[in-house]
Every structure is written in C-alpha cells, then in structure tokens.
Amino acid sequence: MSRKPLISGNWKMHLNHFEALKLVQELSYAVTIDDVEEVDISIHPPFTDIRTVQTVCESDRLPFHVGAQHCHFEAKGAFTGEIAPSMLAKLNVSYVIVGHSERREVFGETDEMANAKVKAILANEMIPIMCCGETLEEREAEQAEDKISGQVRDGLAGVSPEQVAGLVIAYEPIWAIGTGKTASAEDAQAMCAFVRATVADAFGAEAAEAVRIQYGGSVKPVNANELMTQPDIDGALVGGASLEAESFARIVQFRLSE
Ligand code: PGA
Q: Which of 177, 181, 218, 223 to mutate to test the pocket of ligand 1 (most atoms within 8 A of CB)?
C-alpha cells in the first residue's frame, strides 16, 4: 500500500494574522498542483490566524489543509483560554497536533490528556497528528523505544484499529527539535519503523500499514529528501523551516532534490 506523505508546517507561536495571510499567499505561488498530487500539505498557525488562513484557502481554492496546534478535550465549559475541538471543526480545520513535546514539557500534558484529545478530535471528524519522542538522556540510556512504545500505546488507548489507520503519528526526537540537529536518516527510519511495529502489535497489521508516520526535528530543504524517502517515513512535521515560503515549499518538493 502506498501512503501519501503529509508535510505539516507547525508555526508555533509565530506570525500574526496579517503575516499569516502573506505567508500563505507566498506559499501558494511556491507550491504547484503537481506537488499536491504527490503530498498532502497542512499548515498549523496560531489560533488567532486560523480564520484568516481558512478564508484565504477557501476563497482562493488553495491546496492546503488548515491545521491547529492544540485543543482541549472537553466539548465546552469553564476552561479559560482553551479551545474546543468543535470550534476548530467549524473553521474546517482538518488536522490537529496532539501532545507536541513543547506542550508536554512546558504545559505538563500527559499521555492521558493526549489520549482524551485524540478521541475528541476524531469525534469531531478531524485527524489527530499525535506526537511522540524521546529526550537525549532517554536516548543515551537506551530508553527511547520504551518511551515511544508507551506514548503510542497510551496516547491511542481505546481508539479502534480503523481510526488508527486514518490518523498520523509524528516521531520527533526532542533533542532534534529547533536545535538544528537532525536524526540521521537511518535512526529516523529505525524509530519510525519501531512506531509502526508498535501500532501493529497494539492495533493489527492493517492499521500499521495504513497509519502515516511523520518525522519531525530540524527538517530542512537539505535533509528532506533523505528523510522522506525512507520506507517508514510518510512526511514531516516542520517547525522553523515552515515559517518561510521558499524553505517550506522546497521541503514539500523534496523529490526534486534527488
Ligand atoms: P523544528 O520543529 O522543525 O523547528 O525542529 C519541529 C516541531 O517542533 O514540530
């Protein structure tokens, strides 16, 4: 089975809605129709930009899926500052990042919270991009596989194999995020294969074959081709390099740099 790669731009806490409009328009000139036949593209701006990005994508029929970086798992209530999944669905958001390491490390998100969010996102007919990844200390102590296995199993607990088949898991070694240090293509492939094996063990071979697994952590135009052409890597979750149209488009066009 061939899995269509998903290249996602995680803007983190960058760009106001005017800057967002400019970047999306620049991106629309840099990305061609041929690109979108080969890869799916999602962009994940801050919440305050989503309506603007949705409007320009729909009115200009741009080939980008609108994404979000985070949401709450409850449908509504007294959760000051939070956003419900249904609010994102109403803005035609397709992909929502869950359990990014920055949310886990800075805001104390747990696997249980990630699990509740995955279920809430699916219930609202959006696709979770569930993140997992080990710290440098865990890697050096040879605990990376245990950590990833736990995050995948706990984060997806109680989700049906059919639903797992349709979602996205992002493997992002924490030591590679925003540091300019990328995992070698061999290491990234080995860990993404391990994620797939974990899914096979927990949800069966069909779910494992279908689930898309992204690599994230300092993906740039220079390393995108080598990473994206690994057999178990089905796209990228891109932070810093998604903030400029040219570099993000070159990652989307990774096949051209072969
Ligand atoms: P980076 O971020 O590409 O800037 O390393 C990746 C991520 O955090 O998703």
A: 177
